[in-house]
Specification:
Blueprint: H1 2-18, E1 20-34, E2 39-54, E3 61-76, E4 80-98, E5 103-114, E6 122-133, E7 138-145, E8 176-188, E9 191-201, E10 210-220, E11 225-236, E12 240-253, E13 257-266, E14 296-307, E15 310-321, E16 328-343, E17 346-357, E18 366-376
Length: 377
């Protein structure tokens, strides 16, 4: 019985000895959406609190956490709904060990991860991550479990989605994600090569297993021009194959302005390929139907300007449907974001997003304006 009390006492003693920090954020988001025939409003407020505790003077062993409470209040012509959500966003222990030429970082708990594209797996997850940094290569090894995540906050593609009756906290469907990646930061003339392998195992009797192999090559062309090329070959239960590919050029113009241009492709039913499907839900463009990234080609241009406390980001994309063998121009997608850091602890943001459906039906046209404010404490 004594041992049960000794462990937490030692934990809090170590916190007080080496330092403890905490803070929080209060945010307000108001979104107005329209498909030109009806309107909807979504109001959300969020309060989150974070903590950080070091276990040694060097800061190489520490604990971080963040919890939040928010609600979504949706008002439309058809229905009104109110959804409160309580979530543990972050709960991580990290331990860093170094030698002369190597470093090893162990992270255990709940924290966010993403694949090389950010289109397959991009979400918090419970698990263990090992990072090995060697002179010429960085190796990352991860294993996790999704069954304790809040499905009201994280949308995963698969068999299970929360029912409308579930509020506050609804546990997710249990998948077992794993990944192994090799990053070569200077394979030749500062060019970086990343090889990544991901698997998402479904322990059910009728499994929905997904496997992916990613290859990314990126680096400078000149001092102000950079490129990135990525391709992904995926499979469902090793019975069929799918592909996601993207290529972008980034131009840095002066210290504050940048321009990127490129295109992405998510397979439909073409040749030996099947429609692409990721693991974390990812909306391809601002349609009223919120389509997943599949059977589409998206040539995209993005402008960004950062001037002192102001940031402006504008992106525009053509949307080409490519479900099978025929490519059809569907419409134009665009986003405009204006972010201002008014004070060190106050940020204001406005986002205008839209998709104009140029097909005969025009049913997917959608526009929205979101106003956000965040106050840290």
């Amino acid at each position: 019985m004594k041992k049960i009390f000794v462990i937490p006492v030692l934990f809090f003693l170590s916190i007080s000895l080496f330092g403890f920090e905490w803070g929080g954020l209060f945010s307000d988001d108001s979104k107005l959406s329209t498909d030109l025939t009806s309107f909807s409003v979504r109001q959300s407020n969020n309060i989150s609190v974070w903590t950080k505790a070091a276990f040694n003077d060097e800061g190489s062993a520490y604990f971080v956490s963040q919890g939040s409470f928010k609600y979504y209040w949706n008002i439309s012509n058809e229905d009104n709904s109110f959804l409160p959500i309580l979530n543990l966003d972050l709960f991580k222990f990290s331990f860093l060990g170094k030698t002369k030429n190597t470093a090893t970082l162990l992270s255990v708990g709940r924290f966010s991860l993403a694949d090389t594209t950010g289109k397959i797996f991009s979400q918090p997850c419970d698990g263990l991550l090992l990072n090995f940094t060697l002179p010429r290569v960085k190796i990352d090894l991860y294993g996790g479990y999704t069954g304790m995540l809040n499905s009201l906050e994280i949308s995963m593609l698969g068999k299970h989605s929360p029912s409308e009756a579930e509020t506050i906290y609804a546990t997710s469907y249990a998948y077992i994600p794993a990944s192994l990646s090799f990053s070569f930061p200077n394979i030749i003339r500062n060019q970086q090569l990343v090889l990544q392998f991901l698997s998402f195992i479904d322990p059910a009797e009728d499994p929905y297993n997904r496997f992916y192999g990613n290859v990314m090559l990126s680096g400078p062309v000149t001092n102000s021009i950079y490129y990135s090329v990525t391709t992904v070959l995926g499979s469902l239960n090793f019975q069929n194959f799918m592909n996601y590919s993207e290529a972008f050029l980034l131009f840095n113009i002066g210290r504050s302005f940048s321009l990127s241009a490129g295109a992405s492709y998510a397979s439909g039913t073409q040749a030996f390929l099947q429609p692409f499907v990721g693991f974390t839900s990812y909306t391809a463009y601002n349609s009223s139907l919120s389509p997943e990234l599949s059977g589409v080609i998206l040539p995209t241009v993005t402008f960004s300007l950062i001037q002192e406390a102001i940031c402006v980001i504008i992106d525009a994309a053509g949307v080409f449907d490519f479900p099978e063998t025929q490519i059809t121009f569907k419409g134009v997608n665009a986003n405009f974001s204006l972010i201002g850091n008014i004070f060190s602890d106050l940020q204001l943001k406005m986002k205008v997003a839209g998709f104009y459906d140029l097909t005969e039906s025009g049913t997917e046209t959608n526009f929205s304006v979101t106003l956000s404010a965040g106050l840290s404490f």
